[in-house]
Amino acid sequence: MLLVLVAVLGGGYYTWRAVAVARAATPGVVSDAGSSRIERGKYLVSIAGCNDCHTPFKMTAKGPEPDMDRMLSGHPEQFKLPPAPKAEGPWIWSGAATNTAFAGPWGVTYAANLTPDKNTGTGIWSEEMFISVMRTGKHWGQTSARPILPPMPWQGYAKMTDEDLKSVWAYLRSVPAVTNHVPDYKAPE
Fold first, then answer.
1. Nearest 5°: phi and psi at 150?
2. Mean pLDDT over residues 169-180, rounded?
């Protein structure tokens, strides 16, 4: 809520009145308050589907659903997978039951731990590094690093505004840190 002083002409005299004006939520516009940036980031993470792959699924009576106790922690280290099926025929790629590991002609990729855990997540990253990763599609945001592989749709996220990426980063920094060592990428055999 923003208070605005408005001059009102009444009986030939100006009087000042405080008028409460609600700010419209405009995409890409964030107030100076960090919490607004975090809220915008939460919204963007939600509509961008980050939880779809970075939050492990668990089986419930209603079927699989995201395990929010492990929100954005990536592929669970304790969930060991057998060798991936061959990528051939019309079924060229496959995904694990947790929806955090994927196999295809590129090899086997595991959804990263996006929580701010300093040893297993993004806790040592800077905002600049995160933005560079999202813009270049390269690990650590370095051009000589391994590319981010399917199914991560970084090409679409690279088109986000700087403010949107900063908001996503602010939100990711605000979620609980989860210690979870995600397995390394496996090249195709």
1. -55, 155
2. 98
Of 150, 41, 50, 155, the C-alpha closest to 105 is 150
Q: pLDDT, tens digit, for every residue of 130-139? A: 999 999 999 9
Q: Within the chain, where are the H helices? A: 34-48, 50-54, 127-136, 154-157, 162-174
Residues in Cβ contact with 29 at an 8 Å cutoff, skipping those fewer than 6 apart: 163
Q: Residues 162, 113, 42, CA angle at the centre, nearest 5°? A: 45
60-95 burial by CB neighbour count: b if 16+ within 10 A, else e?
Answer: eeeeeebbeebbbbbbbeeeeeeebeeeeeeeeeee
Highest mean pLDDT among 1-5, 77-81, 111-115: 111-115
Judge if pTM exceeds 0.85.
no
8 A C-beta contact, residue 73 and residue 180: yes
- If you average pLDDT over residues 177-189, what whole number do you get? 94
Dihedral (CA of 148, 95, 164, 166) sign:
negative
Taking only the tens place, the pLDDT of each residue in 116-127 is 999 999 999 999
Q: What angle do CA 66, 71, 73 make, to 5 degrees?
A: 115
For 23, 110, 147, the CA distances from 150, given in Å and listed in that order, are 39, 10, 10
Q: What is the CA radius of gyration of the chain?
A: 22
